[in-house]
Amino acid sequence: MLKYRVIPALLLDGEGLVKTTRFKHPKYIGDPINAIRIFNDKEVDELMVLDISASKLKRNPNFELIKKFAGECFMPLSYGGGVTTVEQARKLFAIGVEKIAIQSAAIENLDLISSIADQFGSQSVIMSIDIKKDWLNKYKAFSSKDMKTLKLDWMLMVKRAEDAGVGEILLNSVDRDGTMGGMELDLIKRASSAISVPLIAVGGVGGLADIKSAVASGANAVAVGAYFVFNGPHRAVLITYPKYNELEELFKS
Q1: Which tens digits make up the pLDDT trace of 7-20?
Q2: How many helices (H) and strands (E) does the chain have?
Q3: Which residues are catalytically annotated?
Q4: Where are the domains of the chain?
Q5: Considering the entire predicted model, what is its pTM?
Q6: Which CATH number does 5-250 carry?
């Protein structure tokens, strides 16, 4: 088993997969079932699917579609998007989802995190926190549902999520999303030093060196979007994943 997890992160919009850049300009990249089958063949250890439109449209998770995802996955599946109740979480776990990522509902009510953790275990719930720099170059918590920064201090949000019983924190740099230009390492360092639960860093991976830099900065896992779905300067769609021995070698030192 690898020392650190490297997790493909797929963005669902309706019933298709897209990839955004800085949370805008979604580009269609294909059928989710096909992508899952490719990642199965590449022996990926864990997969994350995030529905980017469910909360914006105040829509429930697409349980039938997610059930198909879980049925195809040979690896543990994390899902996020539109989860607002414990009953929805229960249904997702029943159809095969292993972890649920929550952002919008938890921003409004952290008790949802606590309730899910109490009933299903902390390991089953992830708090997703998006961060964007303001005009003064300061980190601000960001609502992906409303596409605006929040007044609540982002470090306080991270600590409150841990106190609420979350099993992991998914920390996403909005400014690096889809750019493949390197990760926000200072952000990763600051967040990881403030919590004891595992930190999944996402946003900006453009090569294996970026993954290594993220774990060196304190990430316990790295979620990767564009780097695993695009190829070449014209960003042609090509789903890839490193060979196990490549990742093993990457994390040796």
Answers
A1: 999 999 999 999 99
A2: 10, 14
A3: 130
A4: 5-250
A5: 0.96
A6: 3.20.20.70
